[in-house]
């Protein structure tokens, strides 16, 4: 019998570190707008000429609906993470916008990590993500990672390689509780990644006329965050009809803005001709929400340029 | 009744260590908010330090093939892994973050500041280091190339990669990792951290 079996287990040396311009979108609660916000911020930044990569780490793979690409299994991404191979990049999903797509296979990550944790040379998900991203990170001006809400392994791994995190939240207490849970995740990762900062908290799907509610939630969040991070001035309004149209058609809001205008003209022409207009989009105007995403993206880019490590 | 939420200000506080649709102009006003990667904005320019870095005492070994700035080399860039000791990596991370630089650019700065003679002295000390003419040659002690370390990625174009390979041979480094380790160590010893005017 070899004595090496009884050697004390050495502490694993992690290789992961914050990668410049890598930003995680995270909240401890689901349904707060992470995926839609990620897609539209990325799309708007790409439209402005920045080279942007979106990484969908969610096994639901809903980014496909927001960006309008075919459903992916996530198997190639999982294989790249495990083997350190080149990640599967969907090139030019929009001009200047590439995507690493998620899918159901990512559900296996927690189980794989649990098995690997028993080995003394094991690296965690943050290390795997770092090894996969480090060779490609310089190809992009901005990398946005969408994370699943309840998956501690993936969220903390994403935070290990990020320079900043954006926390979207709705106005309800459940969503604000999710911001608190992010505090705990943040604290857990901080020793591994001291560079990590909160870029800001994003108020998502708040009614445009719910001014008192917005003010109240904003005060609550500002009280929680103190001087550590801002609540972004721009909030994204609640526009269910536009959100439904956007996902149904795989359009970003600035694209929906143009599509809605075009459809309005077609409907008017049909009515003038005495014909019944075809069933069209639910929304007639997506300009307001498109403008809000443009303002928000500007705020985020400005904030990122102020954060150390975003050169 | 409102729920009392946790104060997260201390949790999130920064650590001391530190195809366009027709008719829309969306995104146009966002250009320039984030400086292009690899190009430092004026606010991020590192001010000159008062202490002078060490000047090379010998002409470059490979004429006309000095290290090329990574900013200038925009095409054909590949990641090249080298292993650094853990303690050195910690210093390197702190220096690159503090000076808003990259591993590659800091390596270029290091080689700019160190002469081949100094590198040879450190990496493979020879008989001449006794200081006595005609003295007994010292046993050659090479830098240990088998130290454990953590891999970092240097982003190098072909000219930079070739330059490093040639430099390994010139100074007698047992490996690229040993050469890069020594260059960083000597640079950090000789040059204090630059302060960012930010």
Automatic annotation (TrEMBL), chain A:
It comes from Arthrobacter glacialis. Residues 21-194 form the AAA domain. CDD domains: ParAB_family. This is Chromosome partitioning protein ParA. The lineage of its organism: Bacteria, Bacillati, Actinomycetota, Actinomycetes, Micrococcales. PANTHER family: COBYRINIC ACID AC-DIAMIDE SYNTHASE, P-LOOP CONTAINING NUCLEOSIDE TRIPHOSPHATE HYDROLASE.
UniProtKB/TrEMBL annotation, chain B:
Residues 1-68, 127-152 are annotated as: Disordered. This is Uncharacterized protein.
